[in-house]
Design goal:
Blueprint (H helix, E strand, L loop, with lengths): L33 H19 L16 E4 L4 E4 L2 E3 L5 H21 L2 H5 L2 H17 L2 H9 L4 H27 L4 H9 L5 H21 L1 H7 L2 H4 L10 E4 L1 H4 L22 H5 L19 H12 L7 E4 L1 H8 L11 H23 L3 E7 L6 E2 L5 E11 L5 E8 L5 E4 L10 E5 L3 E11 L8 E10 L5 E9 L3
Antiparallel strand pairs: 1-2, 2-3, 4-5, 6-8, 7-8, 8-12, 9-11, 9-13, 10-12, 13-14
């Protein structure tokens, strides 16, 4: 790893140093280059995916939601395309989170904080807000001049316009988030008609406020003080990870001006400061690897612009590995090691978890049964001498079509069933109808001759048969009686 040589400011307790320093607002300067181009492309791609996925339709049959991605909290379901997740299957969401985490670790091992620089929602929102700021207030020098200028009509109007657009974007971000928890067209219609309230309105206000504050004001402070990723990223990278690096062997000693660039007494760095001006977190990458660097590569575009003007080789600052940088310093060929133990471990873990999740989803049962036996009283002795037990029988039909089942009891001779709500009494086999994607709850009473019992507790099996497919599901319980 490249050793960090940054010089943190230390308060020595002499009674004169400040305990708290106000934030100095960062005004990044825009440069044309491949990293700026990719950041812009990915910005619009991610925004389109975030806002658009909620409007993708998916036919699940009559009476079922037709939104491809929907987390239906009132209905206690999660729908992700063809996958329907019930509350008891929340571990599938855990599997998705594990896959996301391992993917992030693998990406870090290969290309450092590429997620932070190009895909993190804080980065995307902040980049969008900065574009609005540049569009309304101008480039970096104009923004700094406007910040330092006293309040005037021109400054007031520009600030009002900027914050109005920011708030509109923040509201749209909040509404888009709510789309994933409600039917998107219905929620949009209710919102336009002013028919939202309760928790929906509270969540919208909270998300709007967070987006507005985090992307408009906090910006890099979120990365510095709120996000833990930068603090443990170093354990996921090594000397072969691609990181934003400054080639000190080529750039030092740095000197201002463009004279004697070929002199052995000076390096190629002319100390122009463009790399610092381009950085959205305001750091100097020439001080070495730092926690504040998000790996966006915008300083590379800035430095290459200056190198082109000076007709010097590009990539004084580059997205490269420490191993390759040392190899170039020694005049060796390019050293790229994408396949190494660390990346192999991540690939194996990712493959195993993904395979287990897919197999588990494809083989999962779409029918579950829960039996709750009455405990007060444990049993009732009827006038006929028979013993009766009560049960609550729940059928979870996870299919998108209604089902008809036949229920029978094994393990106890002479047992009959009564179902509350059905006219037929004392049946050997009862028919139970369950609607699509619902839980059918039935109150059952079983009665059996006392002479057929095996004492205080007799083991029995409820056998449920799918009339359409013939599939059987057996669930064991006990039948209570006198000792």
């Amino acid at each position: 790893m490249v050793k960090a040589v940054s010089k943190p400011q230390v308060y020595e307790g002499d009674g004169k140093g400040p305990l708290y320093a106000d934030r100095i607002k960062i005004h990044p300067r825009k440069f044309v280059g491949p990293f700026r181009k990719w950041k812009t492309i990915l910005l619009w791609v991610f925004l389109a995916l975030y806002h658009g996925f909620a409007w993708v339709r998916w036919d699940r049959g009559p009476g079922m939601p037709d939104q491809a991605v929907l987390f239906d909290l009132p209905g206690r379901r999660a729908y992700i395309f063809w996958i329907e997740i019930w509350p008891q299957e929340v571990y599938y969401l855990t599997g998705l989170l594990i896959i996301a985490a391992v993917s992030l670790f693998a990406a870090s091992a290969i290309a450092g904080r590429v997620w932070c620089g190009f895909a993190c929602f804080q980065t995307v929102w902040t980049d969008l807000f900065m574009k609005v700021e540049e569009w309304i207030e101008g480039d970096r020098s104009k923004r700094i001049k406007l910040d330092n200028a006293p309040m005037s009509l021109n400054k007031f109007l520009k600030r009002i316009a900027k914050h109005t657009v920011w708030l509109l974007i923040a509201v749209f971000m909040g509404v888009s988030f709510l789309w994933y928890f409600n039917d998107a067209p219905t929620l949009t219609k209710d919102l336009l008609q002013g028919n939202i309230g309760g928790w929906t309105l509270v969540v919208l206000i909270v998300l709007t406020s967070l987006t507005y504050i985090m992307a408009g004001f906090a910006r890099e402070q979120v990365c510095f003080y709120m996000c833990p990723y930068g603090r443990f990223q170093s354990v996921m990278t090594d000397e072969d990870s691609l990181l934003v690096t400054y080639e000190a062997w080529r750039g030092e000693p740095r000197m201002k001006g463009a004279k004697n660039l070929d002199s052995p007494d000076r390096g190629h760095c002319v100390d122009c400061g463009l790399c610092v001006q381009a950085c959205p977190t305001g750091i100097d990458i020439r001080d070495g690897q730092q926690m504040e660097c998000i790996g966006c590569g915008l300083c590379i575009d800035a430095c290459n612009t200056m190198m082109d003007n000076l007709k010097l080789p590009r990539n004084l600052i580059s997205y490269d590995s420490y191993t390759n940088m040392v190899a170039r310093e020694q005049g060796k060929g390019k050293q790229v090691h994408l396949i190494r133990p660390r990346t192999i471990y991540y690939a194996v873990i990712l493959s195993v978890v993904t395979a287990v999740l897919l197999v588990s989803i494809s083989l999962r049962d779409r029918l579950e049964v829960n039996i709750i036996r009455d405990r007060a009283p444990l049993f009732v002795t009827l006038s006929t001498g028979n013993i009766r037990n009560g049960y609550t029988y729940k059928i979870l039909n996870m299919e998108s079509s209604p089902k008809t089942y036949e229920l029978s009891v094994n393990g106890l001779e002479g047992v009959t069933m009564d179902v509350i709500g059905q006219h037929e009494k004392e049946q050997k086999v009862v028919t139970l109808d369950v609607h699509a994607d619902t839980v059918g709850t039935f109150k059952l009473f079983l009665q059996a001759p006392k002479a057929k019992l095996e004492g205080a507790s007799t083991n029995i099996d409820f056998v449920l048969k799918d009339v359409e497919t013939g599939d059987l599901l057996s669930q064991s319980t006990v039948f209570r009686g006198p000792k």
